[in-house]
Amino acid sequence: MKTVTLLRHAKSGWDEPVSRDFDRPLNAKGKRAAQRVGEYLRHEHLEFDHIVASPAVRVVETLEHVATGLGETIAPAWDKRVYLASAESLLDVIQEADDSYSHLLIAGHNPGLEDLIMMLVPEGAEGTARYEVEEKFPTASIAEISLPVDHWEDVRANKGALARFVRPRDLDPALGPDGN
């Protein structure tokens, strides 16, 4: 059994002018949400064997604040392919993972992450979490997918189970769409 957890970057700031989308930083709410997600990961004792992340500023900052909440250093493998990647490109990244890893964390962007969840978790899967993700995979949300494979290269569409879907607003209502 392999597990992949997907983390969408936290809310970024549009107020600060940047020359490239790649350089857009987090806003204050995004920083709080990312730290809260890190606290949740610590509380749930979630550990990852390997982290692959987009090198975009908002993902780098998200992981820095997650690390603060987690209380430990995060040292991802920065992979430019994850920046604004499609579901298919993200699947390639997963399938190329070393089999010595049992739990991957992929930190990146929508719509690729949401599309990957829809690709891996079959429609009609048990529970309502898939439908909630389909409605919206908000910033700083995590989705954990269990995959019944021994080798990452065997990960295929419609073979996963959504084991966990957590939004920042689930952890703190002030981090929801109506919060400040």
UniProtKB/TrEMBL annotation:
Substrate binds at R58. Gene3D superfamilies: Phosphoglycerate mutase-like. PANTHER family: OS09G0287300 PROTEIN. This is Histidine phosphatase family protein. It comes from Sphingomonas montanisoli.
